[in-house]
Design goal:
Distance between the termini: 37 Å
GO molecular function: 16S rRNA (guanine(966)-N(2))-methyltransferase activity; nucleic acid binding
Number of strands: 7
Organism: Acidisoma cellulosilyticum
Strand content: 25-35%
Enzyme class: transferase
CATH architecture: 3-Layer(aba) Sandwich
CATH superfamily: Vaccinia Virus protein VP39
Structural class: alpha/beta
Order of helices and strands: HEHEHEEHEEE
Pfam family, one: Cons_hypoth95
InterPro entries: DNA_methylase_N6_adenine_CS, RNA_MeTrfase_RsmD, SAM-dependent_MTases_sf
């Protein structure tokens, strides 16, 4: 696993042992970021934005966004082995000054700063995206109009009733993108 493009291109990332953390494949991440860079609905969504990477795992999504121009990234995860590897990956990218790691459940996060781009990549088949969105919104993490990107299992129910900008399958994964509604 590596950073695909941007100033950190080619940087190798580590994943924890076992299958508790399932990193987004390089292929799916490449396709997602190609959409974010080239789609009219995503114009400017990466440049100088605060990114929230919920269920962060290895941090690959947030670090890829940072590599491509995001101003800062906040990572939320509550799995100890993932948090340890996440910190190693942040150090490998020399990104300590522009990242923050919060050891918490994304469904019940502490108060935070609104992010314009939100990644949610929870374990598949557990329906965690809707309660995470509720908790994150209540704690102030989601800016009005933010792009929300959820990676769910290919057979999982859609995580929102909002109109989707993207609904693409990548093997066992499904990536859904929509825009947060204004309060």
């Amino acid at each position: 696993m590596r950073i695909i493009a941007g100033r950190l291109r080619g940087r190798r990332l580590t994943a924890p042992d076992g299958d508790a953390t399932r990193p987004t494949s390089d292929r799916a991440r490449q396709a997602l970021f190609d959409m974010l860079v080239h789609s009219p609905w995503a114009e400017g969504c990466l440049r100088d934005v605060h990114v929230l990477d919920g269920f962060a795992g290895t941090g690959a999504l947030g670090l890829e966004a940072l590599s491509r121009g995001a101003a800062r990234v906040t990572f939320i995860d509550n799995h100890r082995p993932a948090l340890a590897v996440l910190r190693i990956n942040i150090a490998a990218c020399k990104a300590e000054e522009v990242t923050r790691v919060i050891a918490a459940d994304a469904r019940k996060p502490p108060r935070g700063d609104a992010a314009g781009l939100v990644f949610l990549d929870p374990p598949y088949g557990q329906g965690l995206v809707p309660p995470a969105l509720t908790g994150l919104a209540a704690a102030g993490w989601i800016a009005p109009g933010a792009l929300i990107i959820a990676e769910i299992g290919a057979e999982d129910a859609l995580p929102t009733e909002a109109p989707l900008l993207v609904d693409r399958r990548f093997g066992a994964a499904r990536i859904c993108v929509w825009q947060a509604t204004s309060p």
